[in-house]
Specification:
This protein is of the alpha/beta class. 55% of the residues lie in helices and 11% in strands. The protein folds into three domains: 107 residues, ATPase, nucleotide binding domain (Nucleotidyltransferase, domain 5, 2-Layer Sandwich), CATH 3.30.420; 61 residues; 135 residues, no CATH class.
């Protein structure tokens, strides 16, 4: 019986370094090109496990080819792999060391990891556009903050901001066009947008994520967003809860922005006020409402329903 091989891959733009938890397999360098990667994948035993970090877009070719070749691919969070390395007492960080670490992580932890499923071309394009839009929003905010109160440059700054706003509007229009290419996606997004406070951008991001990842339940989706509270208890001490923030930062930001819009409506404001009366801070209450929106989105997507405000009164969390 052939043993499953656990492989770690450190990905760069031009080359990938591959290592195995099985020391009989040598560490190799492979060009990050379709023909070279296909040739290397053919040397692996069928059904091998391959772990690699999410690195912008450089990992996508290998992840897709490995999945198509019948291997199980795990797309690992770089922050989690860094913590894993520290827990093992790693003293160095090189491409070779990183590849060996990923192979060990896959060998030991694969039962608790989520296998990678390639997105459709449309899903990938929407995801890229959302991430680039987020960068533009950050650049715009940084520009306005940096150039504030500088005499003699107000007109120039406003002109740049107008151009950035025009570019953001064009990105929004492009995303809407891409999303509209799929009637099923469009219908699913429209259902999610029935949630009071959720607009087209948030609805598109939520739908794109829910379509890509088969979350078991609403708790799993909330955990994915990083809006789940992290316990810090020991003995009789109950520590302060903080968000895990382990998911996609932009989706988390969009959910928080949706919560800020939601509390201005007659549907969500009473809920916001009730938590504030109980002593919750405004930020904590917004996070609670962001979680409620995420849970509602999962339920709507899973059961193909629309938003029902009455469920909030019955304790939707």
């Amino acid at each position: 019986m052939q043993t499953v091989l656990n492989v770690g891959v450190d990905v760069a733009k031009d080359m990938v370094v591959v290592a195995s938890a099985d020391e009989r397999w040598p560490v190799q360098q492979v060009r990050n090109q379709r023909s070279a990667l296909r040739a290397w994948l053919k040397t692996l035993p069928a059904g091998s496990r391959i772990g690699l970090e999410s690195t912008g877009s450089y990992h996508e070719l290998l992840a897709d080819l490995a999945h198509a070749s019948g291997h199980t691919v795990y797309l690992l969070n770089p922050m989690e792999t860094r913590h894993y390395a520290k827990a093992l007492g790693a003293r160095a960080k090189t491409d070779r060391v990183d590849a060996m670490l990923l192979a060990r992580m896959v060998a030991q932890e694969h039962a608790g990891l989520r296998a990678y499923t390639p997105p459709t071309p449309q899903q990938r394009q929407v995801d890229r556009l959302i991430r680039r839009r987020a960068k533009l929003v950050r650049l715009k905010g940084a520009l306005k903050l940096t150039m504030a109160n500088l005499e003699g440059l107000t007109g120039e700054v406003k002109a740049v901001v107008r151009k950035l706003d025009a570019l953001l509007a064009k990105l929004d229009a492009t995303m809407a066009t891409v999303a509209a290419q799929s009637a099923l996606h469009q219908q699913a997004q429209q259902r999610v947008e029935t949630i009071v406070g959720v607009g087209p951008l948030v609805g598109m991001s939520l739908t794109n994520t829910l379509e890509r990842v088969p979350f078991r339940n609403a708790d799993a989706f909330v955990a994915f967003t990083g809006l789940d509270p992290r316990a810090k208890d020991s003995g009789q001490k109950t520590g302060r809860r903080r968000l895990s923030k382990r998911g996609p930062a932009e989706l988390r930001r969009l959910l928080f922005m949706a919560a800020m819009a939601a509390i201005k409506t007659k549907v969500w404001k009473p809920i916001y006020d009730s938590y504030r009366i109980q002593g919750w801070s405004s930020t904590a209450t917004l996070v609670i409402i962001a979680r409620k929106i995420a849970r509602a989105a999962w339920s709507i997507h899973r059961y193909q329903t629309t938003f029902n405000p009455d469920r909030l009164i019955r304790g939707l969390t």
